Amino acid sequence: MSHLARHLQQAFRESCPTGWTCESEVGVVSKEIAEWLGYAPQADIVLSQAKSGKRIWIELEISRADPVANHAKFATAHLVSPMPPSDAFVSMVSRHVSRGRGNLAAHTVGLMRAVGIRAFQTPLFPEIDGPTVKLLNHMPMESLRAEALPNHREIDRAVSVATSLGAACGQDIHFVANPIEVAFNIYRWNTEMADPENREIWRRRPVRYFVHDPRTGTFAPSKFAAYLLLPQSRPASVTPYSLTGMSVKAYTAIDQDHPLFDGNRAWRHLHHRLGMDMHPLSELTPETRTTFSRWADGHTNVVAIDNKGPVILSPKPWQ
Fold first, then answer.
1. pTM exceeds cut of 0.90
2. What three-state secondary structure class fits 90?
3. What are phi and psi of 303, to 5 degrees?
4. Are 309 and 281 in contact (CB under 8 A)?
5. What is the pLDDT of residues 242-291, one digit of tens each?
6. Computed over its alpha carbons, how large is the radius of gyration of the chain?
7. Contacts of 122 (CB under 8 A, 6+ apart)
8. Of 76, 163, 204, 261, whose CA is between 20 and 30 Å from 27?
């Protein structure tokens, strides 16, 4: 195991949230089932909440090794020894993992949900670029402790994405766990706004905070893109939207008094937990300002830009 992974295991134990216990290197299945499978999947960290019995099985993906292997181990083990519905799998992936492998693992989360696992993939140290993660990973343990890494943020992120914010439309509401899920929500919002029925449902809403997908040059309200819907007790169907489950009809059907309609809560999660860059549009490049203006001109019937001026959240470059 890498130095950084061992450091995080120790840090999680030392900073375990109140009401939780923390263990390292915990087996997912019994020894008998592991023998039958021919491999013994285990989690780097398991957080257990005494009051509810909920467990969060955390895998730390730090290097450029293929992270999807752990997703597959958990999913196949679940087929013969199902995880309780209250449990959650969380893969935490650093920017040292190559973009393609990280994306494959993030999409595999959708398959895990389809077989009934409450699964999430979220960034590990999103503010630290790949080369720096590599350097940290080769430091002695004593040096890592001296670095004063923001370990508490990693614990907060793992617990936050794995914890339901409430229920709506017969489903559990969660924060999105990674920028890929944000991009899916941006795509879906823009696709569904092409339907006159959805435009009528959405109506013209004031928006200040927008999320940006640089690959497609599209934007969406951050309050829509920051959330996902997961079935409460049944496997999700495998659809192009399995990663988020959010839709315009579902979003507008949620009680307007629900906490997710606090726009500050949405952008704070995207910025502080997922590490998305956030700047007023006026501070961005002329190219981005032009792209946003063109996009906004095409959505004047559904978006009223706040008179304070738009603020744009964008994913950090992945290395």
1. yes
2. strand
3. -130, 125
4. yes
5. 678 888 988 888 876 777 677 789 999 999 999 999 999 999 999 999 99
6. 20
7. 90, 91, 92, 93, 157, 158, 161, 177, 178, 273, 274
8. 163
Tell me how crowded residue 226 is: count the other CB atoms within 10 A of its CB. Answer: 27
What token pair was written down for 91? Answer: 């893969």
What are the b/e assignments for 92-128, b being 16+ CB within 10 Å?
bbbbbbbeebbbebbbbbbbbbbbbbbbbbbbbbbeb
Token pair of 64 as six digits: 């450029």
Residue-level pLDDT at 238: 53
Rounded Cα distance, 202 and 193, in Å: 8
**Residue labelled with tokens 């909920």:** 54
Q: Coil, helix or strand for 73? A: helix
- In sequence order, the 6+-apart residues with CB closer than 8 A to the CB of 266 are 209, 222, 223, 225, 226, 227, 260
Query: What does each C-alpha distance from 251 to 185, 217, 223, 227, 254 come to in angstroms?
Result: 11, 23, 10, 9, 6
pLDDT in tens, 294-313: 999 999 999 999 999 999 99
